[in-house]
């Protein structure tokens, strides 16, 4: 059993998921609201994403835009944790996600890892990025 995050956006899901694919790699699939069978007329030309999945190493990051006419707080009180395979890769990912966002805790060595940092990216998603955990 596993749990995979599903995050919601206010109209910028496509840009966010394409950016995450550039940062993490993987295979991205995107389905827009305009692709719904029998989509209502107001959704025929909608750029909004109904569902997207970024498949990476047997796991998925899923996302969508809130449906037209619905509002919400994207990623409120949720943080996605990612452990990179190395300190160098964790630093690269942290820097890429921090671009245009805000760093909450600088990427730095900790007592449990060679590197750990927290940020909120330009799409409003909170991340904890870490190097492999130290085995004591």
Structure description:
The protein is of the alpha/beta class and 136 residues long. The protein has two helices and eight strands. The strands form two sheets. It has a four-stranded mixed beta sheet, covered by helices on one side. Strands 5-8-7-6 form a four-stranded mixed beta sheet, with helices on one face. A hairpin with a 2-residue loop joins β3 (49-56) and β4 (59-65). The mean pLDDT is 90.
Features:
single chain, 136 residues
Kindly state the percentage of residues in helix.
10-25%
H/E element sequence: EHEEEEHEEE
Q: Name the structural class.
A: alpha/beta
Q: Give the C-alpha Rg.
A: 16 Å
Describe the sheet with the most strands: 4 strands, mixed
Residue ranges: pLDDT <50 for 5 or more in a row?
Answer: none
Strand fraction: 25-35%
Number of strands: 8
- What general form does the structure show? elongated
Read across the widest sheet, the strand sequence of neighbours is 1-4-3-2
| Count of helical regions | 2
**Separation of the first and last Cα atoms:** 28 Å
Mean pLDDT, rounded to whole units? Answer: 90
